[in-house]
Design goal:
This protein is mainly α. It has 9 helices and 2 strands, in the order H-E-E-H-H-H-H-H-H-H-H. It has a two-stranded antiparallel ribbon with strand order 1-2. The longest helix is centred in the first third of the chain and has 33 residues.
């Protein structure tokens, strides 16, 4: 009876690399689903930019999920084919993406205060010039103020300088948008007492949210970094074993 051929180190490396890429695909699909759910339920934060626009967190998650899933599919295909040239290309792509993420992480960590200030300025510009004139942005600000229980950038007084406040046909005698009201109703912001509207600014609310969840955010980023680092090591090991055969 003929004995079964023994697996070589390259065979083991191949199967482990395929399994890693399967995990990467699962992570990518999970990010896609999570991003789509956030977008569908409107349970998201927008990163406001200096030009009065915003970046949707759900879009960032969907793009990240697509990249991760695509990398997993490509990596699994490359590992299955067992081509040392393709493996080396995949190793290079993984390494470059990992290094870019490390650089971005360091910049965000080192420039946290200045980035928060830029986000605050972006939110202020959005409130001053865009609210009431751009439906997606208007809905985004309303959603932010209701979910974070805040009003304006630093306080409700920021609305005094907005184009929305200067347009009488828009505010209907409301001093602030109705989304600033503790209990939202028609013309609920005609009075601005602390029992009627939120006094805390949204910049403070968002900063508090980030501070409260910094360990969760850091843990997720660390886990993704570890997964990618393991993938880089496995891919390079597989490449070395293929070169030996």
């Amino acid at each position: 009876m003929a004995s079964k051929p023994k697996w070589t180190a390259a065979d083991y490396a191949k199967r482990i690399t395929i399994f890693f890429n399967f995990i990467l695909i699962i992570c990518g699909i999970s990010m896609l689903i999570f991003g789509a759910w956030i977008n569908a339920t409107k349970n998201e934060f927008h990163i406001y930019t200096g030009d009065g626009g915003y970046i949707s967190t759900s879009v960032l998650l969907i793009i990240g999920g697509l990249i991760a899933a695509s990398l997993g599919v490509f990596g699994g295909f490359v590992a299955y084919r067992g081509s040392s040239r393709l493996i080396l290309i995949y190793f290079g792509i993984l390494t470059i993406i990992f290094l870019i993420e490390v650089v971005i992480g360091c910049v965000i960590y080192g420039q946290h205060d200045s980035m928060m200030l830029a986000a605050q300025n972006g939110l202020n510009l959005t409130i001053t010039f865009q609210y009431g004139f751009n439906n997606p942005i208007t809905n985004s600000i309303d959603n932010l103020q209701q979910r974070r229980r805040c009003c304006g950038t630093k306080s409700w007084l920021d609305w005094r300088y907005s184009q929305w406040r200067r347009n009488e046909s828009m505010h209907n005698s409301n001093f602030v948008p109705e989304s600033c009201c503790i209990t939202v109703s028609r013309n609920c912001a005609i009075t601005t007492g602390p029992s009627n509207i939120y006094y805390k600014g949204c910049a403070t609310a968002l900063s508090d949210f980030v501070d409260e969840n910094v360990y969760v955010i850091g843990g997720v980023c660390f886990a993704l970094g570890v997964i990618q680092a393991v993938g880089i090591i496995l891919t390079f090991y597989y490449y070395l074993k293929l070169r030996e055969t």
